């Protein structure tokens, strides 16, 4: 162990103004360091430097994205805001879903840690987002994970993917939260920079909403949960900032583990303990400890409250000897929460923690004034205005420049790529696509996740959206989907992001739920690259404008920059999550077409010759160019209204969104989910290849009982939604039969669709 | 109304599901806290699934020492019906109420899937509602579900008909285990047919809305038949 030097106190710092400090190694620029000196009127102490550096990192401060993210707020109308109980800036957005229920949901990235250490990186990603939801006062109900990896057959993907999946399962399963969906996408751009995003959704009674405010002078600050150790120190600032080399020189100690280690058992107990504390009314304000640990929790609680805060850092329970104040403040040890408690409630608070065997320690109190003062054995090591740490970090308006290759990319249209035309070629293409890594069954992944626990899961993978019942009496529930096609976004960041929004929205609507809110996790390359900033700006505008068109608000989000290997950025990947509400989950629409012989299969929407960024161009030709499919938000809204009406009146027995791989892929999945069969008769005169594989947006495959067909098609016609009758369910056929292509038996389809991932990863 | 206890250890996860299954079957679910050596007068006990104490030492190894488990073991010896599901099965094995042990799945992966089982013994208090040889579909979700025992124990279990549930490859198909279990054993009983443990989750299969089927309800209805009849008899004998 390194010897502990004399602790750097405020007094000492004031007396040694010119003492050189390693701010660059902590990710601070010269001018940022100078700004800290200006704020404090002296050099920062080691502990203060640790706090500022981690809180001013890109990950915590949003310094490059802030100027763009404002656009979300500027475009959200009072009408869109109507059902929002909490929005951007809180731990997670909260929406009123009716019957006195509020639902909160959020996605966060844990990309870099998951590349360095796949199991722990992914596991602690789940743990972190679950605590965010818990900090709103909600019971976490379900998780899902949008994932992106390098090529499926790359050796490093074999290292990263199994570890990430095992980590998500290992943590989430042990926590007792059903995993109800997510994404697994492969693309060479994610080699060396996988994306591991984690979403959690939770519910509470409207009156139980808790916010992270340290209010009421004299109220106590209680740290509870796991002890504070040396793990994850510097993780946020080193990993999410501009260096990946891992020089772990911080004040005091070297060679610290940079990825946190998760303990899901402690988190499960912490969840139940917190929920009991909420029920008993013992919490004034609460904040989880995630990235930036105590630095973040204390400065955010204090700056959101109405006073200052005093913290005795030497009271923090530690699991390592000789930790310095700076280390304690930056530690990202998992499974910790920080609560503000009235003095009269402290004993009751401690009793609840005792019952759950959760370590809880009073570490400070809310004070008069507006300073955050942290002491160490009686000496002041931090004395700062908390807002300057938490909210008044640097803000950059980075240069924005449309990439020079964008025009060439757009001009490289896929129209000249050789297309299959004979029945045999088309049949082969259906199978080749179904077996391709991005379209094949995700069962190898999802069967490592418990989707049954708590007994509220109504829909889970491979359904288009996950659906959870939140009220057993009324049957009220929510549906969630996340989506993003990075190739579309690469071709046109504005339209591509709207396509991600449209797909997530449609995936929720096909279950019969009404979409009500949007969250996001914006994964991009380096913000110092003007081309990346252009993608980012376009994506934010596309998403915000799309939300206005749909009339639903963005309630929160997360930005992850520096996702690149060398100078090559990942495909821009703004993952969009949409939350929908259904008043009774018993009327949910399933994804598989079912086994009722003679039920009609209808294709809603229009199919155009659109192959820019398509899965077919990618799989068959390795091509990326042209324009992504056209997006029409008004059409998506109409489609959703029709589906909700169809669900409410029992007119639709199944619905499946069309996306990557087009109609052919949707049919393969819809047949296999229910182990059934169907006969498809393409309309006269269509180009079979385009009809089967185009990725035109705004389309859904629906199954309609024979008796409901006239009523349903009349409704579509009346409301101006194009529809085509394309075939019937025929379970006895046990095959997908397409006129002009041929018949593919269920057994062959299943083997093709399900064989790919086991062959690669078992 | 019959009262069925549901034990909660730190890290128990499927207690809400077990309690819901008990209610669906028509009984009152009574939460039993691990730290209280008190069964609160229940007629039967369910030890639900989860990761008690994080399963960090070995699944179920710490839970068996909980104060409530002493009461469960004593009550089981008196003949109280006890059902261990998944982690609860592991706890019952660790506590010596059932023979054998559960080890890591042969695939080394956690597996969550809908699993066909054949009911091999319909004489236990937890399985009388099933037809002999009935095939049921219930969720299986475990990382350490591989049932092992020495050959002598296996012979004894088979010889005495104490295998209650066996894994099937498919409905109507042959037996076959998804986790490497010896003899494709999914669940077993004690010699008296009153303590049953199984890895799959009948409590997740009580409503086709949230589970694959409602086949799992059969276990809970069975035990209510047993304790309901016993309760009626006791009442008649005591002249109440």
From TrEMBL, chain A:
<feature type="binding site">
    <location>
        <position position="288"/>
    </location>
    <ligand>
        <name>Mg(2+) 2</name>
    </ligand>
</feature>
<feature type="domain" description="PurM-like C-terminal">
    <location>
        <begin position="217"/>
        <end position="376"/>
    </location>
</feature>
<dbReference type="Pfam" id="PF00586">
    <property type="entry name" value="AIRS"/>
</dbReference>
<feature type="binding site">
    <location>
        <position position="558"/>
    </location>
    <ligand>
        <name>Mg(2+) 1</name>
    </ligand>
</feature>
<dbReference type="GO" id="GO:0004642">
    <property type="term" value="F:phosphoribosylformylglycinamidine synthase activity"/>
</dbReference>
<dbReference type="Pfam" id="PF18072">
    <property type="entry name" value="FGAR-AT_linker"/>
</dbReference>
<dbReference type="InterPro" id="IPR010074">
    <property type="entry name" value="PRibForGlyAmidine_synth_PurL"/>
</dbReference>
<feature type="binding site">
    <location>
        <position position="131"/>
    </location>
    <ligand>
        <name>substrate</name>
    </ligand>
</feature>
<feature type="binding site">
    <location>
        <begin position="332"/>
        <end position="334"/>
    </location>
    <ligand>
        <name>substrate</name>
    </ligand>
</feature>
<comment type="function">
    <text>Part of the phosphoribosylformylglycinamidine synthase complex involved in the purines biosynthetic pathway. Catalyzes the ATP-dependent conversion of formylglycinamide ribonucleotide (FGAR) and glutamine to yield formylglycinamidine ribonucleotide (FGAM) and glutamate. The FGAM synthase complex is composed of three subunits. PurQ produces an ammonia molecule by converting glutamine to glutamate. PurL transfers the ammonia molecule to FGAR to form FGAM in an ATP-dependent manner.</text>
</comment>
<feature type="active site">
    <location>
        <position position="59"/>
    </location>
</feature>
<feature type="domain" description="PurM-like N-terminal">
    <location>
        <begin position="464"/>
        <end position="582"/>
    </location>
</feature>
<comment type="pathway">
    <text>Purine metabolism; IMP biosynthesis via de novo pathway; 5-amino-1-(5-phospho-D-ribosyl)imidazole from N(2)-formyl-N(1)-(5-phospho-D-ribosyl)glycinamide: step 1/2.</text>
</comment>
<dbReference type="GO" id="GO:0005737">
    <property type="term" value="C:cytoplasm"/>
</dbReference>
<dbReference type="InterPro" id="IPR041609">
    <property type="entry name" value="PurL_linker"/>
</dbReference>
<feature type="binding site">
    <location>
        <position position="106"/>
    </location>
    <ligand>
        <name>ATP</name>
    </ligand>
</feature>
<comment type="subunit">
    <text>Monomer. Part of the FGAM synthase complex composed of 1 PurL, 1 PurQ and 2 PurS subunits.</text>
</comment>
<dbReference type="InterPro" id="IPR036921">
    <property type="entry name" value="PurM-like_N_sf"/>
</dbReference>
<keyword id="KW-0479">Metal-binding</keyword>
<comment type="similarity">
    <text>Belongs to the FGAMS family.</text>
</comment>
<feature type="binding site">
    <location>
        <position position="132"/>
    </location>
    <ligand>
        <name>Mg(2+) 2</name>
    </ligand>
</feature>
<dbReference type="InterPro" id="IPR010918">
    <property type="entry name" value="PurM-like_C_dom"/>
</dbReference>
From TrEMBL, chain B:
<keyword id="KW-0315">Glutamine amidotransferase</keyword>
<feature type="active site">
    <location>
        <position position="201"/>
    </location>
</feature>
<protein>
    <recommendedName>
        <fullName>Phosphoribosylformylglycinamidine synthase subunit PurQ</fullName>
        <ecNumber>6.3.5.3</ecNumber>
        <ecNumber>3.5.1.2</ecNumber>
    </recommendedName>
</protein>
<dbReference type="InterPro" id="IPR010075">
    <property type="entry name" value="PRibForGlyAmidine_synth_PurQ"/>
</dbReference>
<feature type="active site">
    <location>
        <position position="203"/>
    </location>
</feature>
<keyword id="KW-0547">Nucleotide-binding</keyword>
<dbReference type="GO" id="GO:0004359">
    <property type="term" value="F:glutaminase activity"/>
</dbReference>
<keyword id="KW-0436">Ligase</keyword>
<dbReference type="GO" id="GO:0005524">
    <property type="term" value="F:ATP binding"/>
</dbReference>
<comment type="pathway">
    <text>Purine metabolism; IMP biosynthesis via de novo pathway; 5-amino-1-(5-phospho-D-ribosyl)imidazole from N(2)-formyl-N(1)-(5-phospho-D-ribosyl)glycinamide: step 1/2.</text>
</comment>
<comment type="subunit">
    <text>Part of the FGAM synthase complex composed of 1 PurL, 1 PurQ and 2 PurS subunits.</text>
</comment>
<dbReference type="GO" id="GO:0005737">
    <property type="term" value="C:cytoplasm"/>
</dbReference>
<dbReference type="GO" id="GO:0006189">
    <property type="term" value="P:'de novo' IMP biosynthetic process"/>
</dbReference>
<keyword id="KW-0658">Purine biosynthesis</keyword>
<keyword id="KW-0378">Hydrolase</keyword>
<dbReference type="GO" id="GO:0004642">
    <property type="term" value="F:phosphoribosylformylglycinamidine synthase activity"/>
</dbReference>
<feature type="active site" description="Nucleophile">
    <location>
        <position position="86"/>
    </location>
</feature>
<keyword id="KW-0067">ATP-binding</keyword>
<dbReference type="Pfam" id="PF13507">
    <property type="entry name" value="GATase_5"/>
</dbReference>
<keyword id="KW-0963">Cytoplasm</keyword>
<dbReference type="InterPro" id="IPR029062">
    <property type="entry name" value="Class_I_gatase-like"/>
</dbReference>
<comment type="function">
    <text>Part of the phosphoribosylformylglycinamidine synthase complex involved in the purines biosynthetic pathway. Catalyzes the ATP-dependent conversion of formylglycinamide ribonucleotide (FGAR) and glutamine to yield formylglycinamidine ribonucleotide (FGAM) and glutamate. The FGAM synthase complex is composed of three subunits. PurQ produces an ammonia molecule by converting glutamine to glutamate. PurL transfers the ammonia molecule to FGAR to form FGAM in an ATP-dependent manner.</text>
</comment>
